[in-house]
Design goal:
- The structure is a homodimer of 435-residue chains.
- Chain A contains 17 helices and 14 strands.
- With 435 residues, chain A is an alpha/beta fold.
- The first copy, chain A, has a six-stranded parallel beta sheet, with helices on both faces. In chain A, strands 6-5-4-7-8 form a five-stranded parallel beta sheet, sandwiched between helices. In chain A, strands 2-3-14 form a three-stranded antiparallel beta sheet.
- Chain A is globular.
- The first copy, chain A, starts with a strand and ends with a helix.
- The model of chain A has no long low-confidence stretch (mean pLDDT 95).
Chain lengths: 435, 435
C-alpha cells in the first residue's frame, strides 16, 4: 500500500480517482450476443451456454426435484446460517414499506402515493467457484416484500465435475443457491449466465420471461449488457464497478481488526479498491504489519496482494479532514474504527453503507446484519443508494378532487397554464367550472 | 383518432407500442458538444449559446438584480398562483421525508437507514415561448426538502426581443422562471441551454459547478446528452419520452371534460401520445364530437390536431379489460372518468400519476394539486417512479454491533463466508471473536 502524508486538498480528487474501465472494446461483442438472443430466443441462449459455459442443456428451467434435492447437499449449519441471515435481512427491509397517507393539500384536493411492486423482475447471480447465495438473499427478499409477482433467477450451470464438498456438479446450479432461492420464494430458476442471460430477461425467450427490471452483479460483459439493455427501456439496479472499502482508523482502532477488514475487501478481486485513512502514521504501520501476518494464511492471498498493491493509505491531520476525504471518496463501504464513530457517522454524506466501531466488520453487512450488500461503487454513492425495497417498487401518485376542490384550485391552474401558453390545459379546468 | 373495437389481447402490445425514437443519428453531434464543453469550459458553452440561441453573453450567471427585477414584470395573480402551487407541492412532498428508525435485527445488532440529500444537483429548464416555471417548482421543491446543498439551474437565454406581456426579453430568462426560482430558493441560475448546459453541469466549467445528478425535460438533443453523461457516472432523473395520457371513460364520464383532457395532452407536441379507452363506442363518438368543437378554439390547434391523428380509441368489453389495457400501456398519466374510480385505481399497477373522477383533470397535477408532474413516459412506468423527494436523496445504511452482538451473529457470518469461499471475510469476524 502506498502512503500519502497529509496530501493537499487539491490532490484528493486525483488520489481518490477510480481506475477508468473502458467498456467500448466489449460493446460490439456484447451487442452481438444481445441481438442474437433477441431474435434467436432459447436456441441462442443454449448455443452461448454451450460455447461459454461448456454445457449442453435440454431444459434451462431448474426442476422442482433439483430444487428439493439441493437441501440434502448442504450442512445443517449452512442451512441455519442462510435462514438466520434471511430473517435479519427480512426484518430490516420490512420497515422500508411505506404506508399510504392521503394528504389534503387544499380543501377538496386529496393526493396520495402508493408503492406498487414491479410486476416482473429478473435477478442475475454469476457462477464460478464461489456461489453468491448471499446476493440472492439480498435481492429476492426485498423483491418479495415489495410485492413483485414474478421473480425469476438466471445463473449459469456449473462446468465443474462437482461443487467442493457436495455430490453435485456439472450442468447444475450450486445447491446453496437453490436452497436460498427456495427459502425466499423465487418463482423460477433458469440455467443461463452471462450476456445471454441478461438478453433473455430483457427481451424474453420461449422459456425465460421478459422482465421490467434486472438486478445483480456480474463480470464486465454482464455489466456492459445491463448498460446496453437500459436503452431498450429495461431498468437496472444501478451502474456497477469494483467493490471497495474505506476505513478510518484512529488510536482506538485495533490494527489486527483493521487489517482483517482491508483483506476481506481485497480478496474480492484484483481490482478491489481499498483505502485506509489514519489520524497518525504509526497506526498505518501497525496495520501493515498485521496485513503481512494475516495475508500469508489466506487461500486467496494472490488476489488480495494484487488488490493491495493499488491501495492507498492517507494520513490526515484531524478527524474533520478524515470526514472530508471519506465524503470525497464516497465509498461503497465505510468502516469507522474510531472513538466517536456515532458522531463521525452523522457527518458522512456520501457512502453506500457505514460500519460503526470496532465490532462491526464489513462482512457482517455482506451476509447477515440485515442491511443490503448491493451498494453503489465507483463514487456513485454521491448520487445513488444501495438496493432496498424502493428498488423493487414504483411509487404511483394519485389525486382526487371534489367539485368544490376544483373550484378552490381552479384559478391557480388557469393562471399558470395561461402563463405557460397552454390554453387547452387551462380549458380542462374552465370547462368543468362552467358546468 | 383511430378506433379499435375490442381488439384481441394478442394485438394489444402492437396497438399500444410507442413510436421508436432513434437517437443514434444525434449521438455523434451530441458527443462532440459534450467533449467540447468538457475541455473548453465556459468559452465553449458561450460559443454554443451564440451558435444555437443567437445570444452573445459576457456573464452566464444571472445577477441578483435580474432576479429581483423579475418580480416587477409579473402580475400579482401569477405570483399568487405560483406561490399557491408551491405551497401545495411542498405540502405533498414534505410527507415523503422518512424518519430514521433503528432496527435491532438481533440482540446487539443495530441497523438503520438515513436519507441524505444529494449534495449538488442540476436542474434543466428548456427555453422557447412557453416558460416552464411549473417544472422548476416540481424539481426544486423536493430538492430543497431533501436537503440538497447546491441546487443550480440552467436555462437558455431568450432570443425574443421581449417575452409576451413583459418589458423584458433578448438575452434574458423569463421572469416567471426567475420568480419561481427565487420563491423556492434555487442557489444559482445560469443562462445556458441545450447539450452545452447538460455538459457544463456534468463536467463543470469555470463558472458552472459540476453536479452529481441532473434533472429536467428537454428536446431530443438534451435527452440524448443526459443518456450519454450517465456513462460518466452522473445520475439523471429518468429516461425521457413524449408526454402521454390514457383516459378510461364509462357512461358516467362527461364527454366535454374527456375531450378537454385529451386536448390538453395533445397540445404538448405533435408526438404526444393520447389513448382513450371506452366501455361503449357511443362514448367515443360523443368525445370526438366535443374534440372537434373545442379544438377549433385552441391557439395550439395545429399541434393538437397532429397529435390526435396518431391517437387511439380502444373499445373494451368491460371494466376488467379496461384495467388490463391501462396496465399494459403503463401511461404517464391515467385519468379515470368512471363510476367507481376508487376501486379501479386500486387495480392500476402501472402508471405515473392517476387522476380519479370527473373533477380531477390532468392539468391540476401538471400545476398545482401537489403531486409531481415529472413522471415516467414511454411505458417506463412499469419499472420507474416519478420524481419525488426520493429522487434527491441517497439512502445510506448503517450498522453498529456490540461485542456481544458480534458474538450472536458471528457464527452465521463465518459459515456463510466459508461457503462462498471468502476466508478473509470469515476472518474479519473470527479475529474479533478470539480477542
Amino acid at each position: 500500500m502506498q502512503t500519502f502524508k497529509q496530501p493537499n486538498r487539491s490532490e484528493w480528487k486525483k488520489l481518490l480517482a477510480r481506475p477508468v474501465i473502458d467498456a467500448a472494446a466489449l460493446e460490439q461483442k456484447v451487442k452481438t450476443i444481445l441481438n442474437e438472443v433477441k431474435t434467436g430466443g432459447d436456441a441462442s441462449v443454449k448455443f452461448f451456454t454451450k460455447q461459454f459455459d461448456g454445457i449442453a442443456l435440454d431444459d434451462m428451467l431448474v426442476s422442482e426435484a433439483e430444487i428439493n434435492d439441493a437441501e440434502k447437499e448442504l450442512s445443517i449449519e449452512l442451512k441455519q446460517a442462510i435462514q438466520q441471515a434471511a430473517n435479519n435481512i427480512r426484518r430490516f427491509h420490512e420497515k422500508q414499506v411505506s404506508e399510504v397517507e392521503v394528504i389534503e393539500t387544499m380543501p377538496g384536493v386529496q393526493c396520495w402515493r402508493k408503492s406498487v411492486g414491479i410486476e416482473k423482475v429478473g435477478l442475475y447471480i454469476p457462477g464460478g467457484t464461489a456461489p453468491l447465495f448471499s446476493t440472492l438473499l439480498m435481492l429476492s427478499i426485498p423483491a418479495k416484500i415489495a410485492g413483485c409477482k414474478e421473480i425469476i433467477l438466471c445463473t449459469p450451470p456449473s462446468n465443474m465435475a462437482s461443487f467442493p464438498g457436495t455430490d453435485t456438479g456439472g450442468g447444475k446450479i450450486h445447491p446453496a443457491i437453490l436452497f436460498a432461492a427456495k427459502t425466499v420464494g423465487v418463482t423460477k430458476i433458469f440455467k443461463a449466465g452471462g450476456v445471454q442471460a441478461i438478453a433473455a430477461m430483457a427481451y424474453g425467450t420461449q422459456t425465460i420471461p421478459r422482465v421490467y427490471k434486472i438486478f445483480g452483479p456480474g463480470n464486465q460483459y454482464v455489466t456492459c449488457a445491463k448498460q446496453l439493455i437500459q436503452k431498450d427501456g429495461i431498468a437496472i439496479d444501478m451502474p456497477a464497478g469494483p467493490s471497495e472499502v474505506a476505513v478510518y482508523a484512529d488510536d482506538t482502532a485495533n490494527p489486527a481488526f483493521v487489517a482483517a477488514d482491508l483483506l476481506s475487501q481485497a480478496e474480492h478481486g484484483i481490482d478491489s479498491q481499498v483505502v485506509l485513512i489514519v489520524s497518525r502514521e504509526s497506526i498505518a504501520v501497525s496495520v501493515e504489519k498485521e496485513i503481512e501476518k494475516q495475508l500469508a494464511r489466506l487461500p486467496r492471498k494472490e488476489i488480495a496482494a494484487k488488490a493491495l498493491e493499488n491501495s492507498k493509505i492517507i494520513v490526515v491531520k484531524d478527524e474533520a479532514e478524515a470526514i472530508d476525504v471519506l465524503n470525497e471518496y464516497a465509498a461503497e463501504h465505510v468502516i469507522l474504527s474510531c472513538a466517536n464513530a456515532d458522531l463521525v457517522a452523522e457527518k458522512i454524506i456520501n457512502a453506500g453503507s457505514v460500519f460503526l466501531g470496532n465490532y462491526s466488520p464489513e462482512s457482517v453487512g455482506d451476509y447477515a446484519s440485515g442491511t443490503n450488500h448491493t451498494l453503489p461503487t465507483n463514487g456513485y454513492a454521491k448520487a445513488y443508494s444501495g438496493v432496498s425495497v424502493d428498488s423493487f417498487v414504483k411509487k404511483i401518485t394519485y389525486q382526487k378532487l371534489t367539485e368544490q376542490g376544483l373550484k378552490n384550485i381552479g384559478k391557480t391552474v388557469e393562471v399558470m397554464a395561461a402563463a405557460e401558453g397552454l390554453e387547452a390545459h387551462k380549458n380542462a379546468v374552465s370547462i368543468r367550472l362552467k358546468g
